[in-house]
Amino acid sequence: MPMECQLYDLPVGSIEHAFTAAIGANTGWINWESLRWPDAPEVGFRGESKHAEVTLLFNSRTRELDERADDHTVLVHVRSVSIDRREMREPYAYWLAEQVGLNVIGAEQRN
């Protein structure tokens, strides 16, 4: 049974464990929006809040939940800007991952 629930102004860490237990082996996602990415002058990026989101996918690789997995995936959303068919925001996604001690391991996804 599809279900949608919106909870506002909850701190990170307040719902994830309960949601994981409730979702079990099914697919689902938690999305944090209204974030603000910090400035990253070393990769030529000025912080912004447009498209600044993080999505935690449960048992799926895509936000459409159409690629099942036995683990979870984290999507970091950054605004897409292409100049002469070259993606200009990709270095920022890598920089964001490094700030929390992680690496980008998958290909970009576009909505």
Quick overview of this protein structure:
This protein is an alpha+beta fold and 111 residues long.
N-to-C series of helices and strands: HEEEEEH
Content-based structural category: alpha+beta
The value of Rg in angstroms is: 15 Å
Beta-strand segment tally:
5
* Spatial strand arrangement across the major sheet: 1-2-3
Shape: globular
Query: Could you list the spans in which at least 5 consecutive residues all have pLDDT below 50?
Result: none
- Tell me, rounded to a whole number, the average pLDDT: 82
Helix tally? 2
Question: Could you explain how this protein is built, in words?
Answer:
The chain has helices at residues 16-23, 90-99; strands at 28-32, 53-60, 68-77, 82-83, 86-87. With 111 residues, the protein is of the alpha+beta class. The strands form two sheets. The chain has a three-stranded antiparallel sheet with strand order 1-2-3. Strands 4-5 form a two-stranded antiparallel sheet. The radius of gyration is 15 Å and the shape is globular. The mean pLDDT is 82.
What is this structure's SSE topology?
Layout: H1 16-23, E1 28-32, E2 53-60, E3 68-77, E4 82-83, E5 86-87, H2 90-99
